Amino acid sequence: MRTDVEYSPVGEGLGMSEFWLYVWMRRVAVIAAHVASLGFTILMCLFSRPGTSLFSWHPVCMSISFCLCMTEGILLFSTEGSPFCFKSRKGKVRLHWFLQALVVLGGATGLGFMVASKRALERPHLATWHSLLGVGTLVATTLQAACGLCLLFPELLHVSSHGRLRLYHATCGLLAYLLATVTVVLAMFTDWFQATVKGLLWYAFLLLPLFPALVVMNQITNAHLPKKKITA
């Protein structure tokens, strides 16, 4: 019986049994990334107690946008454990754009709540590395969305080198995701977070966004490596 399996050059040189172990390890990693991103977002929403203050909506909007929607918007292209694996490529692209639009919208909303909260409390803006990188992440994400528009409407925007633009889009997307991950990690060193989450739970929070980041980086990298087929 012939079975065609598409795989990344990362697995090149492996025997059949080792290759299937490699495939299942990747699947488990992707599923764990889904669980970690969703779990982190739910916990952030619970600890933030949205509605108790203007600021309480800031971590809610940002965690939903950058920890959940951005992660899922990238991992939906994965063939190993994506909940949207039944979708066509065109359907995945549309869903990717919908999720990335939510990232920009949610990020802008979270920024608005932060600005309103600081004005109400008369506190200075952009006073920490977390806030500076947060603004940089939002700008980078918005620019990524603009680049994606060129891929979505190449004829309308007169894009000639579609393949090269896809590569640039993926590379810049990786940088934007890294910025988002660093911003989230720095948020855990803010006064509000350290007063809210203490003890061993703080270390668990620190690890939760890092694991999806590793999986996403691997996904983006392997997605643009040449593919081969093996036959069993």
Automatic annotation (TrEMBL):
Listed GO MF terms: metal ion binding; transmembrane ascorbate ferrireductase activity; transmembrane monodehydroascorbate reductase activity
Cofactor requirement: heme b
GO cellular component: membrane
Record SMART domains: B561
Localization per Swiss-Prot or TrEMBL: Membrane
Pfam family, one: Cytochrom_B561
PROSITE patterns xref list: CYTOCHROME_B561
Membrane topology recorded in Swiss-Prot or TrEMBL: Multi-pass membrane protein
Coiled coil: none
EC number(s) reported in the record: 7.2.1.3
Domain Cytochrome b561: 25-227
Swiss-Prot/TrEMBL keywords: Electron transport, Heme, Iron, Membrane, Metal-binding, Transmembrane, Transmembrane helix, Transport
Record-annotated membrane-spanning stretches: 28-49, 55-77, 97-117, 129-153, 165-189, 201-220
Entries under CDD domains matching the protein: Cyt_b561_CYB561D2_like (cd08761)
PANTHER family to which the protein is assigned, alphabetical: OS05G0565100 PROTEIN, TRANSMEMBRANE REDUCTASE CYB561D1-RELATED
Name of the molecule in the record: ascorbate ferrireductase (transmembrane)
Protein's organism: Anguilla anguilla
